[in-house]
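LOG
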Amino acid sequence: MKAMARISILLALAVMLAGGAHHRAVLAQSQDQNAPSSPSVADRIARVEQGLLPPVVIKGRPEPPMKLADRMAFYKVRGVSVAVINNGRIEWARGYGLADVSENRRVTPETRFQAASISKPVSAVAALHFVEAGKLDLDRDVNDYLKSWKVPENDFTTKEKVTLRRILTHSAGLNVHGFEGYEAGKPVPTLVQVLNGEAPANNAPIRVNLLPGSAFRYSGGGYTVLQQLLIEVLHEPFPQMLQQTVLSKFGMNSSEFSQPLRPDWRKLAAAGYQADGSPIAGKYHTYPELAAAGLWTTSSDLARFAMGIQAAYAGKSPAVISQKMAQQMLTGQIGPVGLGVALDGSGQALRFSHSGGNAGFQCLLVAYAHTGEGAVVMTNSDRGGELTNELMFAIAHEYHWPGYAPQERAVAKIDTSVYADYVGRYLAPGGVVIAISTRNRRLFAQATHEPEFELFPESATRFFALVKDNEVEFKRGSSGKVEVMEIHQGAQRFPAKREQ
């Protein structure tokens, strides 16, 4: 679920993926001991680095090859870490670019990044471990376990209860999509202050405002309730609990739920960067919401996590969760959502995934349940989400992953004179203005602080960008003039009103 990152519709929409010459980034590459030096693997790495793919391609129009160096420069991504799983092992892992520009420190496979929301599936596996140990029940009211803080009761909770299963599948009716974190030097709230939305917490109170079990709605707030639940039931600090239960057993020795970051890891940690390439103040934010966003790790360790799930699913490693529980985890609970992960494909092509986005960090994990394949891409940039997708498509293409390829779209033949009706400025949610212009019988859009990108016609009123699941539709009012540009992102709709 790409939405399982810190999603901005404007960031997702306002991206130009067309080919072209860009300034080449200065890349620093290093290969870890897991990466064999055989020419076949070296050739595969080279093809991935030279063959990034956009999420959407136009039917009948071959895409020029895109190089990782060029795309890093285009998106102003300072550093990237990649680990590729093949035949049930890490075939190669590499670092590219800079972990910290001010220190001229390169990314290596040992560089720690914030995993952001990929913390959630790790936390989910810990919860499932304790379900099997008889400490928790997937379908029992969580307030039966919570003592010092409880989910406030209201009209919704009198009808349906918040349960662990519903928290793990984002269907508990809990609010608060994600968290901003706290700048270095700023006060950091306690977990209970976060749950109550009390100063210095910067989030709304975490409450049920949708009938539990009625619908999927992504909630970092729900995983913060999970964090409180595990602490109260196990009577142990969350970082140590996760270290003993999941991280150490999966061999994730370069990972820790460390917030704030432990001092001896600072020279190993990537600094975060904003969309324009400027640094995050203090290098990175602190996230007391550990279960939702607090893991520091490497791409190789996240690959080991994925392999741990694959091994459990195959019945080869019951140390953390059993085969039966792993199978339940990778079974759709509410739509294509498993217990802590997104699901796609079926049969041998079944795969699980999770993306993540904290301030200055974007990352993506994709792995197949049956075939021992997968990859992790981590970046230290707010624009890294687009790059992780392009790089993941390149890996999927090189390794022939089933069912994982750019979406092919056809361009409709229309009377382009209608473009003149769409030209103008549209105010989107969040106060961002999207300017629509036309030239040479082509339509373009440009959002605030973003590069211009082309819109391709699906019909005379509906257009798509070269970004999967992102479309716009121009709608006329009673006067016959275009008044609204509706942004379509997956199943969601966002109206952008035309300025007069």
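LOG (cont.) second protein
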Amino acid sequence: MLNHAGEEHSLGKVTDLPLTLGGAARYSIFNLLAATLAGAALGLPLAAIARTVARFGSDPTDNPGRLERWRYRGALVLVDYAHNPDGLEQLLRAARSLQPARLTLLLGQAGNRDDGAIAELAHTAARFAPDRIVIKELTRMLRGREPGEVPALIRRGLLEAGVVPDRIHLEPDEETAARILLEAAQPGDVIVLPVHTREVRERLHATLDAGTREESSSPNGDSNHILER
């Protein structure tokens, strides 16, 4: 509900708004609350605000790199930037609340974070018990680190947090790392891909778009389907 100028206006059910991921992405609910109130305060038509929140986020290109939702081989793929522990926690909380058959994760970090911050990112990931984690190297974002240094710190942090070694895979190339997880997709999986390089994200879009189109054209396909919670 949007309460503005003494009147309440319905914006629809939370679970029906695409940006909320069926209500799983609670942080998106708070963002929508702020955005709709700001829009009303600026004088935007309330009907236009309601129409926008009812559709925005249904197309992965609405907000590139932020909670993009794709279907691929029966799995739900979430592409997000998630470049710090809080962002990763919110993303993984949403992913885990969808009760996936398997939760898999791409994990990496820029080199200008200190060792403690990199360890915190790894510990955050471990709390959500991914079934598989592929650690990537951000070769354009070494920022003073030696090649392989950041992935090694992430792996150490995961092991410290109790992740068993056979759930961890290291792949230096970001795109290859993401594709490893996509190629292993199974129906019911949720695949979380924090992709930090624009060019990599754009190339992955082509693959994911083809997968979504294939599923939506199949007899039982539904590109907007959200896993049962």
